[in-house]
Amino acid sequence: MLEDKNQERTSLEKLGEFGLIDHLTKNFELKQPSSIIGVGDDAAVMDYNGKKTVLSTDMLVEGVHFDLSYMPLKHLGYKSVMVNLSDIYAMNAIATQVTVSLAISNRFPLEALEEFYAGVALACKLYNVDLVGGDTTSSARGMIISVTAIGAANESDIVYRKGGKPNDLLVVTGDIGGAYLGLQVLEREKEVFKVNPNSQPDLEPYSYIVERQLKPEARKDIVELLKKLEVKPTSMIDISDGLSSEVIHLCKHSDVGCNVFEEKIPLDPTVISASEEFKMDSTMIALSGGEDYELLFTIDQADFPKIKGNPNLTVIGHMTEKNEGIHLITRGEAKIPITAQGWNSFNE
Amino acid sequence: MLEDKNQERTSLEKLGEFGLIDHLTKNFELKQPSSIIGVGDDAAVMDYNGKKTVLSTDMLVEGVHFDLSYMPLKHLGYKSVMVNLSDIYAMNAIATQVTVSLAISNRFPLEALEEFYAGVALACKLYNVDLVGGDTTSSARGMIISVTAIGAANESDIVYRKGGKPNDLLVVTGDIGGAYLGLQVLEREKEVFKVNPNSQPDLEPYSYIVERQLKPEARKDIVELLKKLEVKPTSMIDISDGLSSEVIHLCKHSDVGCNVFEEKIPLDPTVISASEEFKMDSTMIALSGGEDYELLFTIDQADFPKIKGNPNLTVIGHMTEKNEGIHLITRGEAKIPITAQGWNSFNE
User: Fold this and answer.
1) Could you give the domains of chain A?
2) Residues B55, A146: C-beta atoms closer than 8 Å
3) What is the mean pLDDT of chain B?
4) What's the longest Cα–Cα distance across chain A?
5) Can you tell me the distance from the alpha carbon of A81 to that of A339, in angstroms, rounded to the nearest whole number?
6) ipTM confidence score
7) Is A63's CB within 8 Å of B93's CB?
């Protein structure tokens, strides 16, 4: 039986580093007009015809950012790209290329990497970005992923973290808190599995929040929607570390204060029910959960009619003078200072 | 005494991820006209005024690519940048920006990261590139570095791995094999130290090759020199994995064969003497050693008068028709096929 299992596994030593990159990237086509040369030379070559180039990079580390015991590799490949595209969209730019680098221990067979790259390929296809480079090397332990995303935008379209003004409205896309609760569900099932490997977890009631954790979608559609609505946010950031942390970033960079209204924070019904099940406060989860990859932005009040009633966009507060501070206005109308409780990898 | 030691150490938990990035990058200025926004937003913003953008990324993993028992962190920061700039210069482009991402275990105090970033800063200063982004996160074990370098070039100046023609001359910059032998010296001293921690290693006779290993320099000067000499190589690559591996890459991409003449391979006298001491063949080291970060390129024979006699450039062979194969012509005039023996991280 052991031999049968091994037949499906191709050791990485056999392929070597160059063969591996060729093998893993051979099905990636270049579709962006700005992609001149992709994988296979010393560097990728791109051309933006005078547009601004936007670039973002992130690292994901096994045991810190993901747990392979419940994160399928294809999802991981997809999510690694999403995390970076999200940063490009948070600049109000359109992502055009990514590079994906991997450090992996020899315990991973080729087929595992193929799964990972299948996820990368799917993300590239759905979001219309080209894989143009990367590096693949061995690690002493575990899997470490580094992705760099490149995007393009007209100078006049780029939105920074700075730029928000007092009285601007604070808007969040989609709903938040789901990714964090999805992680709690997966962690719980992992513990159950450890005790009883024959248990059949029923994840069906949690499918929305589990998908938010395993297969988040970056909000390219919002960049397109805002263009269509002719709304240019005054400041913007993506929600990777939790709402409170991102609100603080916007306030700090824009030199303003903020009031966030608890009752306005958009929560999916599954988030509310799972919060109750886990005996956690759903507002706290929205503020501190992270990994939702929604966008958080400020708009001039004059733009409110343009976004009013759009199901993708929720006004959750407004910016104030800096000296008024950053507060959550609770359902009970208490005013609580918001402190950074976003995810901090060094505090684990 | 233990308390005294600890006074100099700042734990990473104290600073948190955002504070850490701010702290480590606060002394980096943007000097490139193409750098619009650096660290501190969701993405860096660059503008190339219609020039081609060139981008390269590499990962360095503790225990695979470097050993902190003899690699000072400042050197490591410097080398991490060099490895990537080298890829940009190998496109005949000028590097303009880098992003540096780090995954590190909690065993590293802040001061260690400051050392690393001091090396990054020195590299940025000397090579006139801007640090515009990166990510800092924790790792389960060890230190993993991912650097992305961005460069710019006029389309007509870019040199690819493809483009070499039969009868083109094969040229190498500087001398090769030193970095690999430097590593052998450092490995030997590490073993000696394990046996006798009081031994005082005398590295003076090996200073050139040890520096080649610990503080390589990417050949920006060669890109400038070639421009001045009005020579545009027909194909080019940097020597990161060893001469044989790079020659094969050029031949494969250019669809040609090659003859390399053993007697022409430029070796520093220290490389020759250290080879003898380690009972290794100096040609084999040059062919397979790697990490020299010199440039290897082909030029049209008509350009030979322009490079003749330049101490930085050595003609070591010529390209042939593809069906003639890739060979080393030894001092004894034997013709030996060159096979890829470059460094392969999965074979360790």
Assistant:
1) 2-157 (3.30.1330.10), 169-347 (3.90.650.10)
2) no
3) 88
4) 69
5) 29
6) 0.84
7) no
